[in-house]
């Protein structure tokens, strides 16, 4: 078996940030996702954002759940703290870690199945509690690890690889985040790095719950019926001695378009994404306006991208709970066990 590894040699003139780090210092392991997967573009955007912001990798905690998206933290910030939780439970694990140590930068990575289905309750409470974090959902509308069934974010009327039409209404995580109290809400497309990188930078610098919904098409489940490059077609016309799955590489889909405009992005299977980038006259401080704008454009079949809402005067969970400045995991016995007199005084207040 052959294992791929990144070369350790580095050019002497490689760009360095204010901390003296190169971009390589913010990378992780080599991706094992499908070639052309939009998730890898998101990982690259995270790497670039952290490099540009001069963030110390060892002061970042990255957490994830289960799914293709939840594998991606292994592909960036290899020298940071990391925790891969169970399916849908990343938000509560991140909340506990943030309570224990407020001095780290918290980055949660999830998927539409991980956050909009089994983990939707966890997602809701993380948003409303004001956890200081950047929460990225890599949204492809399918369950990529279990053969491409519709996820809860799949649009009503969309067609699956097998030709099935989705009859369920979609969950809009960006709109839900707005309603639940997130104070930084954005949506982007994995192929638009010019928009995505600044949005990630803004989220990492925000002092409260920052949520980014990134549309990230799945390349594997676009090998639709009728394609001579599909798995089924090759199996039917191949006299093979065994049955082997091979995921054929596809080129990443990228786009660039000005604010206020609509862009039609054709996918590998011929389907089309209608992306509308927010105009320069859009007011991101109007939460109700943001919710209305999302619903209006969704009715037209458009996916709104950009910074949807931001509250610059936000308070995070530690301010809500009035915790001490020192991280809780560094408090000694004198703080954690104040003695019987303090307990008696507390009990007296409850009588």
Automatic annotation (TrEMBL):
Annotated transmembrane regions: none
InterPro entries: 2-oxoacid:Fd_oxidoreductase, THDP-binding, TPP_enzyme_TPP-bd
Keyword Zinc set for record: no
Domain of life: Bacteria
Transport recorded as keyword: no
Key words, A-Z: Oxidoreductase
UniProt-listed CDD domains: TPP_OGFOR
UniProt domain Thiamine pyrophosphate enzyme TPP-binding: residue ranges: 66-214
PANTHER family: 2-OXOGLUTARATE OXIDOREDUCTASE SUBUNIT KORB-RELATED, BLR6744 PROTEIN
Listed name of the protein: 2-oxoacid:ferredoxin oxidoreductase subunit beta
């Amino acid at each position: 078996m052959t294992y791929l590894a990144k070369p350790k040699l580095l050019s002497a003139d490689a760009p360095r940030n204010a901390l003296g780090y190169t971009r390589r210092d913010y990378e992780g392991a080599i991706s094992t996702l499908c070639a052309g997967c939009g998730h890898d573009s998101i990982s690259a955007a995270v790497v670039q954002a952290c490099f540009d912001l001069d963030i110390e990798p060892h002061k970042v905690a990255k957490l994830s759940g289960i799914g293709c998206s939840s594998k991606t933290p292994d592909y960036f910030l290899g020298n940071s703290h990391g925790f891969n939780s169970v399916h849908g439970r990343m938000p509560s694990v991140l909340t506990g870690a943030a309570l224990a140590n407020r001095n780290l930068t918290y980055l949660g990575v999830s998927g539409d199945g991980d956050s909009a289905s089994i983990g939707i309750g966890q997602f809701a409470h993380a948003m409303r509690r004001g956890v200081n974090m950047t929460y990225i959902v890599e949204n492809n509308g399918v369950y990529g690890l279990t053969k491409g069934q519709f996820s809860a974010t799949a649009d009503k009327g969309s067609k699956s690889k097998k030709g099935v039409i989705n009859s369920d209404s979609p969950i809009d995580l960006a709109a839900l985040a707005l309603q639940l109290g997130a104070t930084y809400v954005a949506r982007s497309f994995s192929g638009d790095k010019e928009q995505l990188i600044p949005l990630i930078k803004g989220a990492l610098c925000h002092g409260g719950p920052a949520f980014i919904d990134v549309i990230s098409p799945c390349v594997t489940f676009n090998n639709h019926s009728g394609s001579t490059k599909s798995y089924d077609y090759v199996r039917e016309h191949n006299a093979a001695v065994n049955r082997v799955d091979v995921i054929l590489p596809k080129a990443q889909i990228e786009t660039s378009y000005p604010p206020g405009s609509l862009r039609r992005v054709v996918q590998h299977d011929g389907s089309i994404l209608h992306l509308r980038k927010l105009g320069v006259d859009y007011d991101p401080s109007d939460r109700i306006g943001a919710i209305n704008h999302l619903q209006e454009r969704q009715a037209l079949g458009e996916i709104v991208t950009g910074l949807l809402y931001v509250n610059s005067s936000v308070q995070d969970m530690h301010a809500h709970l009035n915790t001490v400045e020192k991280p809780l995991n560094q408090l000694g016995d004198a703080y954690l066990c104040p003695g019987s007199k303090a307990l008696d005084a507390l009990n007296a207040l409850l009588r």
